[in-house]
Inverse folding.
């Protein structure tokens, strides 16, 4: 399939694996890229720029296809060493960066001078237009369904994507709730040039996380996610569990008076143990409503091949067939 996204990134299929904390290691990114999609290493999961440089090297040993690095700009006082991370990306010869979180404007000149294409993840039309105005090459439009941070506007993709298509000139991918060939065809129909998946890629053989995480996603239905940290205007969609119930109870009890310190135990530093040791109830971890559509743990190649075959069948048989007289 050829779209503006496959052309922009030099990939075979218009499928991107979004950056995911403690999931987006070289094993997953290279598997996605080898299967013809765009794999993404999560920059900040590597504690230092030197470790990121090493992860990029490892990924390059596992694939000769294009892959990217996610840089999430956090709203924190003690910012990570972003210039160092960007140097590691540039020196590592990576040509695609997925930015997310705060406005990436400050970092765009450094990235563009190195010939790097930037796709910024946005949860609203207004942020997508801002990304276009500051010179991003593409955007990933992340609907209310998404795992992780859906923003505060709560607009689902059936509205958000066609609204983005009405306004944007640069190419965009649909993100949030994408799982299969149906998702891809729907995303294209709504004006996107491809799709970005997070949760679906965790439940694959190559995702380097504990099997408990994969099984929790397979077992979950579309009713099993919760929104946490809304009172802090840092909303995150997570899979429900004992820690999440506790966190939500604190939110109800403390109301507007709640601060980050009140929920630190449930959210701070919980990812390594959950993802690597499979301690599922330790804290809140991002997961999309799309868990309701995930019923197996295939290899990345089988998943991507299946998506592309299903998309082709839908377009050629189901949709074209409806037009036949
Ligand atoms: C476990 C997990 C961790 C994530 N970590 C990040 C992150 O560090 N940075 C980021 O930009 N997005 C992160 N995301 C969001 C994904 O990149 C992607 O936008 C989102 O998962 C899409 O929604 P979906 O899960 O419905 O496919 C994370 C998502 C999940 C499920």
């Amino acid at each position: 399939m050829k779209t503006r996204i496959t052309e922009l990134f030099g990939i075979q299929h218009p499928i991107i694996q979004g950056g995911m904390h403690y999931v987006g290691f070289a094993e997953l990114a290279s598997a996605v890229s080898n299967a013809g999609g765009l794999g993404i290493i999560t920059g900040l999961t590597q504690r230092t720029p030197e470790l990121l440089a090493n992860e990029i090297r490892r990924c390059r040993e596992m694939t000769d296809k294009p892959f990217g690095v996610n840089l999430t700009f956090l709203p924190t006082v003690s910012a990570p060493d972003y210039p160092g991370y960007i140097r590691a990306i540039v020196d590592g010869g990576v040509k695609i960066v997925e930015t997310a979180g705060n406005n990436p404007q400050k970092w765009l000149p450094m990235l563009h001078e190195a010939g790097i294409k930037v796709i910024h993840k946005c949860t609203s039309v207004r942020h997508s237009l801002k990304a276009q105005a500051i010179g991003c090459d593409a955007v990933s439009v992340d609907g209310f369904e998404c795992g992780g941070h859906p923003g505060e506007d709560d607009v689902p993709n059936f509205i958000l994507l066609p609204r983005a298509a009405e306004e944007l000139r640069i190419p965009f991918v649909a993100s949030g709730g994408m799982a299969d060939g149906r998702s891809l065809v729907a995303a294209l129909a709504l004006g996107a040039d491809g799709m970005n998946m997070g949760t679906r890629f965790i439940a694959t053989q190559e995702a380097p996380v504990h099997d408990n995480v994969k099984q929790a996603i397979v077992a979950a239905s579309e009713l099993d996610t919760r929104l946490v940290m809304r009172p802090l205007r840092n909303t995150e969609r997570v899979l429900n569990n004992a820690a999440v119930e506790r966190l939500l109870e604190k939110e109800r009890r403390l109301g507007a008076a709640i601060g980050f310190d009140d929920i630190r135990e449930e959210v701070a530093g919980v990812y390594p143990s959950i993802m690597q040791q499979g301690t599922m109830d330790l804290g809140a971890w991002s997961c999309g409503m799309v868990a309701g559509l995930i019923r197996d743990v295939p290899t990345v190649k089988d998943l991507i091949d299946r998506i592309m075959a299903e998309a082709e069948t839908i377009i050629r048989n189901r949709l074209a067939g409806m037009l036949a007289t």
Observations:
- Residues 4-208 form a domain with the TIM Barrel fold (CATH 3.20.20.70).
- The radius of gyration is 19 Å.
